[in-house]
Amino acid sequence: MHRMLPIGAFILAFTVVPLSGAEDKGQKDNTPPEGFTALFNGKDLTNWKGLIELPERSKLSPEKLAKAQKEADKELSHWKVEDGVIHFDGKGKNLQTARDYGNFELYVDWKIKERGDSGIYLRGNPQVQIWDSDNLADNLKDDWHTGSGGLWNNQHHPKKPLLKADKPVGEWNNFHIIMKADKVTVILNGKKVVDNTPLENYWEKGKPLPSKGPIELQNHGDELWFKNIYVKELPD
Description:
Blueprint: H1 7-13, E1 37-38, E2 48-50, H2 54-57, H3 62-72, E3 79-82, E4 85-88, E5 95-97, E6 104-112, E7 117-122, E8 125-131, H4 133-136, E9 173-180, E10 183-188, E11 191-198, E12 216-219, E13 224-233
């Protein structure tokens, strides 16, 4: 005989309560929870720089890298801070952290428009997917209505989210991402959508994921919004 779980226990079994971000209405925007550091201060792009992708970066001498970074930082003009929010105008390249990170916990709130497409790169590798899967998967029927949070570029490990947890397009969503070694867990709006799954090395397929790399806010030429970006480094 099977006993039914009380409805409250059933809900808790499939829900993780977010600690910060869009779901915590009592938390002031861009103020990190205890133990975390704000990657975005709500005022400017301190802690961020223009994109130099990992394969290119690894080939440059310090002198050439400094020159390339100066050129890449010109793209920052497309990432504006408006009313405590990072707003991307739909032009230019990704935004990446000034520092590299290995093992970490990350919170980030994000918002897209209809047919919006974005993502979060971890250690410089794509990606935790952000997209309007209800309208962008016209030619990808297997991914229709799957939602955000999946490890989109995986080829040999699961790439799809376990369930769709997105809020309606135009509303704020909250990611809680945990990365340890090459394993990634993604909690979207309090629901686990990726559970301790390897993120594959996109740039050098078949090789281990780099031990460290930047966190990136990706774009595909769409208008985007981000806030409440907090990181806590974890031991190796």
